[in-house]
Structure formats: structure tokens, C-alpha cells
């Protein structure tokens, strides 16, 4: 009986030896891990994975499958087209015809907003949708001209070429901008550069869209009042000043009355469509019905003789080639490329947001990079066929979805319908009043202003709301460029603030577990006496934050020592740094760790580091930092580090 305690002690010692040997083995796995890939290898691998398909066995069947897979990836229609059924075509036909009834008047209005002749809006609703139908992966998105991009072009290009003084030069520059926009979009998709679009955060887009909607609405006052002279600026102060000046001299009441009557009708149709989902076709047909009725009214009453402004001639026929109008020489090429880049990002952001919204409803995934490729090639083709920058429209996509579309065939039906209208019906639009185009655009703007989302952003993240309001006020009181610059600057400032001033969290063990958590978030977490455990909440320890983190860590050590000054038993003897979140480190970060280690040594405090990631442990080994602190002070988990330090303290206090 007396030998039982001795056997228990031996078992405990044996168990402790096993744990120690297992811990030592796991640490060796970490320290002796292979070298990570170099920067060059990572770049080559990323490009190869983006451009080339995965390698397969070089059999003839494998090569054929690989070629077919490549073609289906580039042209998704080859995949789903083989299983396309007549029942789906019936739904797509009805959706396409409904979509065309909305697209025709909107396209004319958006061309007017872009300061182009009406036919160019219709051209943009023909070729880009057809190209997208071949290459796009969204089933619901409706392609064509949109209000925001049209406003963007009309606000930026006139600073380079005046559309009133040189309409041909203006049109050529629009085609060049469209070419550059398509090129940038295709490059983004080809090289998986979709993250560039994310520089415009969700909050910035909400503010941008709201500001753009108000600016677009103010621009329509020119058509609504029947003015001939109007400012080329887009800020609120300039536009309202121009309206007040012009109203005194050239206000034609008939334009205003006609425009307001049909604006009320359009808004009422929109309200009815929202209240009764079965009447989705009514707000979709309302713009075309407004055009037909207003044209008949002007024609029968000869209202154009009494001051009502009309469209007059619209050139019909197929899209003419604009290849000869593209100019890549001259003083405006750099400006065209800059405007093209901004247009590409805005168009992509809107299209991908719209496409993903409806894809999530239908329960399928939308590949952002494929969408960029499709958008890029459709705008490249559009620049060669007299189109300007096209993208996905939220209002028309909603109509397409409500009309029961099954595939992008609805875009093909819409494009063919618009093309037939160009061939047969453009002469009938001669007496269409411009005020109606203004009312159609105004009726579509409420969908761009999302007050509830802005409030949600304010409630959740104040810095995000700052980016939102920065974009909104910048566009409203300065220009589109200033608004975008303000939003991107604030977003970058937020990233830099989080990177330069990352948090350092004191950790404690949750009761009855081996889990260590932030003691501020979990007050029940228990600190280990004599051991200070900190977690670095930064993905990078670099020149920008190394000194800040070192000072924060030393401040924690000093505060802990001041708290426990009266009890030598609780004096900090070991500092454990949890580096689970640290993905990489540079020479400034290594130097900061070395200085921290030297300071701790002078205070008789040991340093232990936990869960070093691949790049971090590799660089610390090269810098011989691992040798300085000792391999025995490197651990895989916080729990192992704490247990080892407690065992070391029990064995010999001097070692800790």
C-alpha cells in the first residue's frame, strides 16, 4: 500500500515527459518548416493560375475537354445553351419585350444626359447586350446605358472638348473613353484584379449614387423648363444659379406642365407596380406609353410651335462603325484614358453589385472576374460600333427579373427589338418632347437614393459613414472627381489608421477551458499570475507600426508591474506574445522585436512567442532572432506556452 503514492508520482512524471517531448516535437515542426515561396514565385503562380487552365494529362480526350472547358469559361452560353428549352424561351421572350419597352425611352433619355444624339443611346442597347449574352454569367442583368455613367461622361468630357462647339470631337472622345473603359475592364478580369474595384467601398458607393442621383435630377431641369442655355458644371450651386437666371428669360411653361404631368404618371405607375407585384409590367410600359402619348399630343396640338422643345431627327438604321473615329494620337489621349479608368470602375461596381444581388436571390454564384471580362469585351465592341459605356442597370434588371426572365436570352430579345425600332420607328419620334425624356430620367432616380442603407452605415460604422457622406457632398458641391477622391481618401485613411494603430489585447483563460480570449471582451477570463499574455491584432509588423506596437507592449508590462508591485509573487516573469494574426514582418518589425527582447532581459522577463506563421518564422530564423530567445520559448498555442511556463516556474523559478 505504501508503494502506491510512488507509482502515481512516477506515472505523473512519465505523463509530463510525454507532454514535454510532444511539445518539443511540435516546436521542431514549426522551426524546421520548409522555406516559403519567394515573391517572384508567388507572382508567377498567381498569373499562371489566372491565365492558364489547370494542367491535365496530355491525352487527346483531356486536351479536347480542356479546350471545351476553356471555351465554356469564356462563353458560358456554350454550357447552358445545350440544355435550353422552349419553355424558357417563352419566359425570356416576354421579359425581353417588356425590357425593350422600358429600355427604348430610357436609352434616348440617357443619351441626352450624356450630351449625345438620341440614336447613340439606342445603339448602346443593341451591341453590348448581344456581346454580354455570349460572355456574361448573370441570368437577370439588363445591359445598356445607365444614368450614373451618362452623368459621369457629361460632367468630365466637356472639360476636355465642348460638345456645343465641337460635337464631332466630343463624340470621338466618348468613343475613345469607351474603348479605354473596355480595355481596363478586360484587363481587370484577365489578371484577377477585381480587388481594385473594391477600393470603392460599399459605403462610398451608397454616397456616390445618392449624390449622382441629385446631380442628375438637377440636370434635368434644363429639359423640364425647356431651356436652351445651361451651365456645363454639375455642382448644386452652379446648376441652381443657372436655373434661376434662365427662368427669368427663357422659361416655357408648356414644357414644365407637360413634363410634370407625365412625371406624376410615371411615379404613380411605379407606386402601383410596387404595391401589386402582378402589375410589374405597368411601370415598365409607362415610359414607352408616356413617349407615345406625349408625341401624339405635341403632333396634334402643334405644341412645338408654342415653345415645346422636341427631339426632332433621330438617325435610324444599324449601328454604324466608329472604328475610323477612334483617335489615339493627340493631346486628349491621356484624359480619355483617365476618364475611361474612372468609368470602368464605376460601371463595374454597379454591374457586379446588381448582378450579385439578383444571383443571391436565385441561389447561384456570380464570378466577378468573368463579369469583368464580359463587360470589357462588350464595351470594346461597343466603342467600335458607335456605343458609349454600357453596364448593368438596376431598374431594368429589376424589371427583367419581375418579368420572369430565365437566361440572358432576354437581353438578346431586347437588343433585337431595339434594333427593329431603329430600323422602323425612329421617324415617329420626331415630335417627342424633351421634357418627357427628363421626366423619364427623374422617375428612375429615387431607386439610386437609399436613405435606409445610409442610416444603417451610420449605425454600424461611423468611419464608413464618413466615406459615404464624403462622396455625397463631394459630388453635390464640387464634382464627380472630387467626390470619388474624397471617398477613396477616407477609405484609405481608415485602412491606414487600422494598420498603423493596431490593437494589442491582454489575454486570459476562460474558466474550465484551454481557450485564451481578450479579457476586455470576456471579463470572466482569468489572468495567469506572473505571466502576461498579449495578442497582436495586426496582419503585418512593419515600419509603419513596429515602434507603436513595441511601445504598447512595454506599456502593458509597466502597468502590470505597477499593479503587482506590492506582491512579489505576482511580478511579471514571462511575456507571451500571441502572433496568430501576424502574416508577415519586415526588417523594422524584426528590429522592434529585438529591442523589445533586450528591454525585457534587462527587466529579468522572459519572452515567449506563439504560432509564428510561415513567412514570419522564416525571416526570424534568417535574422537569428530564434537563436536569441531560444527555440524552447517558441510554441504552437497559447495554452502550450502557458503550461510550459508554469511547469518551468515550478521546476525552477530562476528559469522564468
Compact description:
The protein has helices at 4-31, 39-51, 60-74, 77-80, 86-113, 118-123, 127-135, 147-156, 167-190, 202-219, 221-225, 236-250, 253-275, 281-301, 333-362, 368-383, 394-402, 409-424, 434-444, 451-460, 462-477, 480-500, 546-563, 587-602, 614-622, 625-629, 638-651, and strands at 142-144, 391-393, 503-509, 516-518, 531-537, 540-541, 574-578, 584-585, 606-610, 634-635.
Tell me the layout of helices and strands.
Elements: H1 4-31, H2 39-51, H3 60-74, H4 77-80, H5 86-113, H6 118-123, H7 127-135, E1 142-144, H8 147-156, H9 167-190, H10 202-219, H11 221-225, H12 236-250, H13 253-275, H14 281-301, H15 333-362, H16 368-383, E2 391-393, H17 394-402, H18 409-424, H19 434-444, H20 451-460, H21 462-477, H22 480-500, E3 503-509, E4 516-518, E5 531-537, E6 540-541, H23 546-563, E7 574-578, E8 584-585, H24 587-602, E9 606-610, H25 614-622, H26 625-629, E10 634-635, H27 638-651
Parallel strand pairs: 5-7, 6-8, 7-9, 9-10
Antiparallel strand pairs: 1-2, 3-4, 3-5
Helix pairs in contact: 5-14, 5-17, 5-18, 5-19, 7-16, 7-18, 8-15, 9-15, 9-16, 10-21, 13-14, 13-19, 15-16, 15-17, 20-21, 21-22, 23-24
Amino acid at each position: 500500500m505504501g508503494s502506491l503514492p510512488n507509482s502515481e508520482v512516477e506515472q505523473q512524471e512519465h505523463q509530463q515527459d510525454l507532454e514535454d517531448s510532444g511539445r518539443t516535437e511540435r516546436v521542431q515542426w514549426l522551426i524546421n518548416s520548409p522555406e516559403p515561396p519567394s515573391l517572384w514565385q508567388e507572382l508567377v503562380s498567381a498569373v499562371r493560375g489566372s491565365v492558364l487552365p489547370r494542367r491535365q494529362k496530355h491525352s487527346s480526350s483531356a486536351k479536347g475537354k480542356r479546350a471545351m472547358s476553356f471555351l465554356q469559361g469564356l462563353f458560358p452560353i456554350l454550357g447552358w445553351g445545350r440544355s435550353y428549352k422552349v419553355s424558357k424561351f417563352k419566359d425570356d421572350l416576354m421579359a425581353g419585350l417588356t425590357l425593350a419597352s422600358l429600355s427604348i425611352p430610357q436609352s434616348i433619355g440617357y443619351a441626352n444626359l450624356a450630351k449625345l444624339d438620341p440614336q447613340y443611346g439606342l445603339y448602346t442597347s443593341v451591341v453590348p447586350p448581344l456581346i454580354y449574352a455570349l460572355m456574361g454569367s448573370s441570368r437577370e442583368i439588363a445591359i445598356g446605358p445607365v444614368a450614373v455613367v451618362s452623368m459621369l461622361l457629361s460632367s468630365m468630357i466637356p472639360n476636355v472638348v465642348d460638345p456645343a462647339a465641337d460635337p464631332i470631337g466630343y463624340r470621338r472622345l466618348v468613343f475613345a473613353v469607351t474603348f479605354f473603359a473596355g480595355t481596363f475592364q478586360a484587363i481587370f478580369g484577365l489578371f484577377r484584379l477585381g480587388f481594385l474595384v473594391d477600393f470603392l467601398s460599399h459605403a462610398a458607393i451608397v454616397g456616390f449614387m445618392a449624390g449622382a442621383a441629385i446631380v442628375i435630377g438637377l440636370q434635368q431641369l434644363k429639359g423640364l423648363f425647356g431651356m436652351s442655355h445651361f451651365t456645363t458644371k454639375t455642382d448644386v450651386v452652379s446648376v441652381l444659379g443657372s436655373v434661376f437666371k434662365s427662368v427669368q428669360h427663357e422659361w416655357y411653361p408648356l414644357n414644365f406642365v407637360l413634363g410634370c404631368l407625365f412625371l406624376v404618371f410615371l411615379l404613380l405607375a411605379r407606386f402601383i407596380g410596387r404595391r401589386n407585384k402582378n402589375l410589374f409590367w405597368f411601370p415598365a410600359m409607362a415610359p414607352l406609353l408616356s413617349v407615345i402619348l406625349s408625341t401624339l399630343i405635341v403632333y396634334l396640338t402643334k405644341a412645338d410651335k408654342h415653345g415645346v422643345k422636341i427631339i426632332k431627327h433621330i438617325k435610324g438604321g444599324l449601328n454604324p462603325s466608329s472604328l475610323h473615329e477612334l483617335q489615339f494620337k493627340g493631346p486628349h489621349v491621356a484624359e480619355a484614358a483617365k476618364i475611361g479608368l474612372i468609368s470602368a470602375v464605376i460601371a463595374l461596381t454597379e454591374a457586379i453589385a446588381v448582378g450579385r444581388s439578383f444571383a443571391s436571390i436565385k441561389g447561384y454564384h456570380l464570378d466577378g472576374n468573368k463579369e469583368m471580362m464580359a463587360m470589357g469585351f462588350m464595351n470594346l465592341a461597343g466603342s467600335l460600333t458607335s456605343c458609349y459605356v454600357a453596364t448593368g442597370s438596376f431598374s431594368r434588371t429589376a424589371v427583367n427579373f419581375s418579368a420572369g426572365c430565365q437566361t440572358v436570352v432576354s437581353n438578346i430579345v431586347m437588343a433585337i427589338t431595339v434594333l427593329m425600332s431603329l430600323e422602323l420607328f425612329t421617324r415617329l419620334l420626331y415630335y417627342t418632347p424633351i421634357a418627357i425624356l427628363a421626366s423619364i430620367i427623374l422617375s428612375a432616380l429615387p431607386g439610386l437614393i437609399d436613405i435606409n442603407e445610409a442610416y444603417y452605415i451610420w449605425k454600424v460604422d461611423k468611419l464608413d459613414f464618413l466615406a459615404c457622406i464624403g462622396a455625397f457632398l463631394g459630388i453635390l458641391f464640387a464634382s464627380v472627381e472630387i467626390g470619388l477622391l474624397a471617398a477613396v481618401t477616407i477609405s484609405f485613411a481608415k485602412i491606414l489608421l487600422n494598420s498603423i494603430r493596431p490593437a494589442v489585447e491582454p489575454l486570459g483563460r476562460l474558466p474550465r477551458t484551454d481557450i485564451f480570449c481578450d479579457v476586455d471582451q470576456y471579463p470572466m477570463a482569468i489572468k495567469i499570475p506572473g505571466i502576461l499574455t498579449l495578442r497582436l491584432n495586426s496582419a503585418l509588423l512593419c515600419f509603419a507600426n513596429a515602434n507603436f506596437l513595441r511601445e504598447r507592449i512595454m506599456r502593458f508590462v509597466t502597468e502590470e508591474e505597477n499593479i503587482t508591485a506590492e506582491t512579489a509573487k505576482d511580478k511579471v516573469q514571462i511575456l507571451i506574445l500571441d502572433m496568430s494574426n501576424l502574416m508577415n514582418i519586415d526588417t523594422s518589425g524584426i528590429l522592434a522585436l529585438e529591442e523589445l527582447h533586450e528591454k525585457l532581459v534587462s527587466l529579468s522577463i522572459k519572452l515567449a512567442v506563439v504560432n509564428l506563421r510561415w513567412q514570419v518564422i522564416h525571416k526570424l530564423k534568417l535574422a537569428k532572432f530564434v537563436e536569441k530567445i531560444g527555440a524552447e520559448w517558441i510554441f504552437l498555442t497559447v495554452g502550450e506556452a502557458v503550461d510550459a511556463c508554469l511547469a518551468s516556474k515550478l521546476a525552477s523559478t530562476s528559469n522564468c
